[in-house]
Amino acid sequence: MSHQETHGFQTEVKQLLNLMIHSLYSNKEIFLRELVSNAADAADKLRYEALTKDELYEGDGELRVRVSADSEKGTVTIEDNGIGMTRDGVIEHLGTIAKSGTAEFFKNLSGDESKDSQLIGQFGVGFYSAFIVADKVTVRTRAAGHAADEAVQWESAGEGEFTVENIVKESRGTEITLHLREEEKEFASDYRLRSIITKYSDHISVPVEMWQEGTPAQEATEEGGEAIPATEGHWQAMNKATALWTRNKSEVTDEEYQEFYKHISHDFTDPLLWSHNRVEGKQEYTSLLYIPSKAPWDLWNRDRKHGLKLFVQRVFVMDDAEQFMPSYLRFVQGLIDSNDLPLNVSREILQDNKITTALRTAVTKRVLGMLEKLAKNDPEKYQTFWAEFGQVLKEGPAEDFANKEKIAGLLRFASTHTNEAAHTVSLSDYVERMKEGQSKIYYIVADSHEAAANSPHLELLRKKGIEVLLMSERIDEWLINHLTEFDGKQLHSVTRGDLELGELEDAAEKEAQEKLETESEGLVKRVKESLGDKVAEVKVTSRLTDTPACVVAGAGEMSSQMIKLMQAAGQAVPESKPVFELNPEHPLVKRLDMEQDEEVFGQWAELLLQQAQLSEKGSLADPSAFIKLMNKMLLAGGK
Fold it and tell me: Where is each Histidine kinase/HSP90-like ATPase domain found (predicted)?
């Protein structure tokens, strides 16, 4: 008995369908690429399942995808004999988008069609691309190994709901029929479909077939010509149908590599670069790795699936095999085809398999090598990569100790040398420019580029012409905790304890500093007594030239940026007191030193401390108390 039900689409699907129809008008033909790609995946999945359950083939092991058109009815049909779907599978896969964070993705859509189509490209459109050209889509499917009467028909006009009913289907697999809109009838032409398939689907390892009409017999002509026998109509493959990665690099064109990338990533844009390698010897495997040119929309979602497609001896085994790619390289797309892993490998076996570890090490080195080469040979293109994926790469030093130096060489920062917000300075650039006698790489981490660039902590270093790296991304404090040196040079924060200028400080400066400290002992003691336990220590600064005071983190204390990170993650942070540094040469500090009234002295000391904390943290625990104190001092000064 046919059992029909009507279901509403998930809200996100409705939004996506609306965008499909309105935003992707400039590149409509990609619907065929997406549907053929899905059909080929279904065939791959069946081939893998049938390794242990041969009966799933049902006596038909010739896997293929068939495309046909009916110009009178205005329909295009894409049919495969792959894994197929059950009723529950149909409702789940064709009614919802099972991607975490989809609601967030739709918030980012602007209503500007050209920008939105770029975003959709990064989202991956798959099945729903059918609605770019069709005003109704019918899907008939039966899961391999299920009875003919357990098949399902799904149908929708793409407007908010779909129907599902049980049908009888003798053959396994999925058949998708697109009822074309009036203005899209050009796609119901065999010639048009052939040209799209050869353009987009040559690299697919399953044959993509179209019907080739037979020819009638021709009788011999009188001038001694031969009779031509009739030929029967047959299904003919339109693509090479060999796995692209098994071919020699010299035989594969750039266009084929680019199309294969779009097939595996469902991205619209061409990749930035790729690397195709066959390795023989102790281990035998082929890898084809791509660096995308645009970051996927959900790159920062921790639940996002990532990883390589895994093939074993050219048989597709699994998607998103994250065991071969460290998390900080999660933007890499591609595949690995191993001759050494067992065909029935599972994620659990991969987890602690020696072959997996060796492949992961090799593939990671390959990606880092690709990026090093790009940075060296095409710095401009590397900047494009850095703008998209730099923050992810910064997770590397914490995650991959073995490649820490390699990753450090790929990092880019803003710096006082360029005085620009663009992240173009590498650690090697910095080391090359280090002053004679300089033994440390100086950096500052702040809430924004402006806060870093204008920090009072840089005053002395600027005066001496010493370069400082300016860091202002949320991950920088985390990075710097794991990247403590580069090329044998320690990384040193200008907001911590002693500046440690070493040989950069000449004897005369040292002597002047010591003299200043001796002369200011009374002032330092008074300020410490006045502020009490609000500060850990009060001392005379060596780092300020134009600012009256600053606060720094004491030795072994957490920096203000790390405290913010921990608090943002909901972690309790032990209370830490700053070291308060005074600049006795500044007029305000001189004014403080001359103040005889202890109460007024205390108010001035408090004001300078809060100013310094505001400059360092960008905020205060009690801003209104600071404003009251500030106003009081202003009024007192005006009398």
Answer: 27-184
